[in-house]
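Subject: for your reference before the review

Hello V.,

The reviewers asked for a structural picture of the protein, and I figured it would be easier to keep everything in one thread rather than splitting it across files. Below is the amino acid sequence we used in the manuscript, unchanged from the supplementary table.
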Amino acid sequence: MEVASNRLVYLDNIRNFLVYNVVVLHILQMFAYPLLFWWAVVDQPGSSRVNEALLVAMDVYLMPGLLFIAALFIFPSLKSYTPLEYLKKRFLRLCVPAIVYLFCAGDIFYQILLRRLDGPVPPFAETFLNFWRFFLAMPAVYLSGSEGKLHTVTFNMQHVWFLSLLFFLTLAVVAGSAPFRRQASPPQQADSKRKIITVTVVFALLLGLVHTAVQIIYVIHHIYIGEWLIIGKVLQFPVHKIWTLLALFLFGLYIHKRKWLSRNDIGSWTMWGTLALVFLALYVLLFFFNILPELEGLFLAAAHNMRFENLVPAPPPTLSLQKAFLSSWLLMPLVCVFLLMAFLSFAKRFANQPNAVTSFCSKHSINVYILHYPAVLILQYMFFDVPLPPAVRVILMTVLVIPACLWLSHRLVYPYPKTAIAFFVALKLAALAAGFMFYYFALLALTFISFAGAVYESAKWYRVGRRTGRETASPIE
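And here is what came back from the structure prediction:
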């Protein structure tokens, strides 16, 4: 970006925080019953409303934040590439890994889920074929989440939906800006701090109103807010979030155009942080005390009805639940916008110095985002019957998954992408012949080997740094 290294450092550090927070979110989903009764591995005794509230809080800012940060990088990156070169680079970085993931690991979720449900588990090859048969049979526009039974194998893009959405949004921005690429931009007067704060607050309020109106329209037309829309079999997004996601993506483009981050004081992190925490506390408390207790009966009924033939009636939503949801719809965009501004101002002040560790994590963040999902699923399955407190299991899985994915990206995926693709595809083909348990133990072994490699190389790097007296280490090699 305009202020090269410094600017990129703190934006990358925000992205690091969000990506590794996604890993924790997926690990924690094991302990959020009945809110996430559909997850592959569900520990009902270990679940709690606190865990559900934590997931509700993370869900507010994680994907909107990643999309917002991605928007800030688009135009600066275009300065180094032609539009076609940039789109090719983004396709290879976003879409190819998503395709490889779906082929190699898209059906792992269902094999583990079917084992958890204690029903008949089809051979791994059959699950794989059903997954892709569903893909071929899908219409051009498909609203997911309407399948009748939990044990039905359906196609969805799982966590890589974000990568496809980001690519198509980037494609739209590059195509829309191409006619103006060679035109010189007239000099702009820097926005004052007061104007930046006013514009941001007004934007947050308007987005809250729009978000609320959209949710009301969904309810009127009986569109379940937990459903996902799949367009053209390649683009998937949550119907209840897409308008907020698009608005924050455009807000990121606007911030770059107005050069807020390079020329302006956007407000103190304490101010934005206080606003964010106040509204976040209201949002989480609303869910904890008003929404989640009333939703429990609905989710328990849904969990039963999606497993068994003897359907039980779901309790009708009460007026108090409707009012609570209405308040949450208005609060959610405000929390998200104020949190993002707090992240920007805080990171610019306190996380703006390059170092080897954060640079290394930034380099591999997208690969960690892609690789962590199957590792999380198999470790959740492994830890399911381990008699440890949920908090301990969450910490152990986090400590295992993140270093393992970083090392695997560092030693295989990033330097040898074609070899990595061939390796994972060959492993998957072998698993289709040998069975799911072969694949499960192979991926489990790969996770632990990668973790051991990460520990060994980190210790070696640390010893070298101590011996040479480095205070700011060079890039990890």
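For the response letter, the relevant points are probably these. Residues 4-178+191-468 form one domain. The chain has one domain: 4-178+191-468.

Happy to draft the paragraph if you're swamped.

O.
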